[in-house]
Amino acid sequence: MERNLKELVAQMTLEEKAGMCSGLDFWHLKGVERLGIPSVMVSDGPHGLRKQDESGDHLGINDNIKAVCFPPAVLSACSFDRELMHTFGDAIGKEAQAQNLSVVLGPAVNIKRSPLCGRNFEYYSEDPYLAGETAAAFIDGVQTHHVGTSIKHFAANNQEFNRMSCSSDVDERTLREIYLPAFETAVKKAHPYTVMCSYNKINGTFASENPWLLTDVLRDEWGFEGYVMSDWGAVNERVEGLKAGLELEMPTSNGINDREIIAAVKDGSLDEAVLDRAVERILRIVFLYWDNREEQEFALEADHALAKKIAEESMVLLKNDNVLPLNKNEKIAVIGEFAVKPRFQGGGSSHINSFKISSLMDALKEYENVTYIKGFSADEDCYEETLAQEALNAAKSADKVVICAGLPDSFESEGYDRSHMHLPECQNRLIHEITAVQPETIVVLHNGSPVEMPWLSDVKGLLEAYLGGQAVGEAVADILFGNVNPSGKLAETIPYKLSDNPSYLSFGDGDHVTYNEGVFVGYRYYDAKEMPVAFPFGYGLSYTTFAYSNLTLDRNNVADEDTVTVTVDVTNTGSVKGKEIVQLYVSDLTGAARRPLRELKGYEKVSLKPGETKTVSFTLDYRSFAWYHTALHDWYAASGEYEIQIGASSRDIRLSEIVHLITKKLLPIQTHLNTTLGELLSDERTAKYGLKLKKKMDAFFGGGAESDENSKGAEETTDEAVGDAMGDAIAFSMPMRGVLSFGLCTKEELQNMIDEMNQL
Fold first, then answer.
1. Which of 436-439's residues contact partners 24+ apart within 8 Å by CB, and which partners?
2. Residue 409 carries which DSSP code?
3. Residue 648: helix, strand or coil by DSSP?
4. Per the residue annotation, which of 127, 231, 500, 527 is the catalytic one?
5. Is pLDDT at 194 greater than 90 in this prediction?
6. Which residue has the higher pLDDT, 697 or 755?
7. In which band, very low, low, confident or very high, does the pLDDT at 719 lie, cut at 50, 70 and 90?
8. How far apart are CA 116 and CA 118, in angstroms?
9. 484, 474, 462: which is closest to 367 by C-alpha?
10. Is 94 helix (H, G, I), strand (E, B) or coil?
């Protein structure tokens, strides 16, 4: 149905227009009955619907509808599977239509700056490329059904402590390269209906009233056409927020901020055209949903099966010393209360009221040789001698032990950050004791963020189940017993200890949080430092093996406008069917800027039968090689060599090829008295000026003079070489003003030279 929204807005009173810019209650937008504008409902639920009635609350104290809890982002991102994420989104879109929901509040794409962030389980990755591609696929799936998404939290919301008022102080390059690209990719590729701004300030300005963020970048640069909503209670100054590009305040302000908008229009401090535009943007999205409502079954059982598949495709096998898969004929002792009381989702506003939950022991109830021993509680850190002794006795008499370990609900949640990376000490202690009497031990982890593993070298198997959704038990069972070949890979690095993390000294408390690590986040830091880690980004094992060969580039010399097609063959060299995630990284060899050792710029998941070979293809463009240049306020790739790396993880590069890039994009010349001679010589446009000044310096200090090598002893020759090297180094680092100090030219001559260069 075609609607003339401008005409509709023109019929609204000032009070009605102001009212459209805030919620009716906690979950509904206002309608205008006389004009046929409906009141529509939004709902939490990136990994399932958390639908509440009008008496509901933000954090879920009141009951939600029974729904399906799919695996949260911490796990689903490990699938590295765009098609699967689209299917996931498609299911959420159908469920939302069945429940009359216009917008699902998600996905959450904030970067995992630190393992301590209490909400990391809702976020995809430490890598912006992976987070953006994953989000775009999910959003496209949801919005296939004309149900909107609200990508969040825009932007730089990387901690829970003081999240409603602290300032994330981030330099422009770091914002552009790390904290904004996931949003940018999703906006440009999938066109989310809405964007949710974050609580925090960015460099001192609240996200909810930041015109650079909400208008200059989001709309003018990226082309966003939906509406921006606040996180619940994120509004600081409502009128300033509206001017900046915040259309919808959630939840209701009970008329307080509506009246501020009305007053601002009446006194002339707010142009009514700004309000009209905001209302039109909101109505466009309202009617996109309302005019495309469809009958849908709330297919709980079918979606439970999909939740199981997503979990199976995403869980990461981290260690396997010939202990997995398990055999039904083996005597297996399963230890740890997580085996019967799994932790499968995080706490806070995304908490789903699951219609059913499968534990590992539920899934293994038909297995005669499997016994369960509690060993320790899933809810608290308490070592009980009786429980521990029962577990040790069972471990001694078993062929193999599976320990279901993890973090209790209270250890990580929305609203607060972790203070450490430890598992409960009772679990670490019992794992040590069990491995001492039973070396054939496997640990299954249930956690929303990485944990330190002091027992890692003692166990033979380790499965990272993260938070697996309501079908977690079935998925774990199928992987442990080989019914499913594990194929997930880590979407984040697991460091050995917290202090290894690059944000360790600057994460958390304070009114201002300075992102001192810059672009060196996650593997970008660990790999550049050559720091040992427990498990690197992109890592994951399989029950089969894969070989890479025949890396081919369709061109080795590229210009700005060119794309490069990269192909590589992958072969299943093992005995069972499996899936491999092929990763493409780009390494900048030009030395033009300080950059990470490598950055993910492509990935594909491929399924292979034993002995089968398939060709995987990637396409790279200028942006794939570029970094954000703050003088240009744009992306820039220097001319020179770049290495295309194909790997099974960021630490397992199998093949590489060199691309030579010639860029037409010129950096601005901004010479001044403190510009060094080395800087002049490094740019072909200013090199002649730098050379002219260097010759003056050489002549003054005697550098560059011819010498009679035969007339000098070896010691003198060495001294002269050192002196020449020192002289060159001093000259290269000499600011232009230095030639004045030695009377080598006049200030007028030097200024004329600077003016000439700045006009090039």
1. 437/392, 437/395, 437/396, 438/333, 438/395, 438/396, 438/398, 438/400, 438/401
2. G
3. strand
4. 231
5. yes
6. 755
7. low
8. 6
9. 474
10. helix
Task: Name the residue with tokens 């090199």.
Answer: 687
Q: In 3D, which of 552, 613, 630, 629 has the Cα closest to residue 584?
A: 552
pLDDT above 90 (res 344): yes
Q: Do 5-56+72-291 and 546-661 agree at the fold level?
A: no
DSSP letters along 280-332, please?
HHHHHHHHHHHTT-------HHHHHHHHHHHHHHH-EEEEESS--S--TTS-E
Q: Residue 230, CB half-sphere, CA atoms under 13 Å: how many? A: 32
The token pair at 693 is 């000044």
Residue type for 80, please? F
> What local confidence, expressed as pLDDT, does residue 711 receive?
46
**DSSP assignment of 453-491:** -TTTTT-SEEEE--S--TTHHHHHHHHHTTSS------S
How many whole angstroms separate alpha carbon 692 and alpha carbon 469?
68
According to DSSP, residue 577 is labeled -
Cβ proximity of 257 and 235 under 8 Å: yes
Average pLDDT over residues 330-347: 96
Amino acid in the structure at residue 286: V
Using the Cα atoms of residue 156, residue 162, residue 167 and residue 173 in order, give the sign of their dihedral: negative
Is 679 within 8 Å of 698 (Cβ atoms)?
no
* 443 class by beta-carbon count within 10 Å (0-12 exposed, 13-18 middle, 19+ buried): buried
Contact assessment for residue 42 and residue 102, using Cβ atoms and an 8 Å cutoff: yes
pLDDT digits (tens, 9 = 90+) for 501-515: 999 999 987 899 999
Cβ atoms within 10 Å, residue 373:
21
Strand partners, 441: 401
562 Cα distance to chain centroid: 27
DSSP three-state, residue 239? helix
Q: What is the pLDDT of residue 704?
A: 47
Predicted pLDDT at 669 = 84
- pLDDT at residue 729 tops 90: no
| C-alpha dihedral, 296 to 298 to 304 to 309, nearest 10° | 10
Predicted confidence band of residue 724 (pLDDT cuts 50, 70, 90): low
Q: Where are the domains of the chain?
A: 5-56+72-291, 315-487, 546-661, 677-705+716-758
According to CATH, the topology of domain 546-661 is Immunoglobulin-like (2.60.40)
CA distance 24 to 253: 9
Q: pLDDT tens across 464-509, in order?
A: 999 999 999 999 999 999 999 999 999 999 999 999 999 999 998 7
Question: What are the phi and psi torsion angles at 342 (to 5°)?
Answer: -70, 145
Kindly give, in sequence order, each residue whose CB lies less than 8 Å from that of residue 669, ignoring residues fewer than 6 positions away: 683, 685, 686, 757, 758, 760
Helix axes 714-733, 687-701, angle to 10 degrees: 140
Domain spanning 315-487: CATH superfamily:
Glycoside hydrolase family 3 C-terminal domain (3.40.50.1700)
For residues 94 and 321, what is the distance between their CA atoms, to the nearest angstrom?
42
Type and span of the H or E element at 695: helix 687-701
- Verify whether residue 683 is a known catalytic residue: no
* Other C-beta atoms lying within 10 Å of the C-beta of residue 250: 24
Neighbours of 512 (CB within 10 A): 11
Q: Reply yes or no on whether the pLDDT at 65 is more than 50.
A: yes
Decide if pLDDT at 428 tops 60: yes
- Report the topology of domain 5-56+72-291: TIM Barrel (3.20.20)
| % residues pLDDT > 70 (the chain) | 95
Q: How many CA atoms lie within 13 A of 166 on its CB side?
A: 21
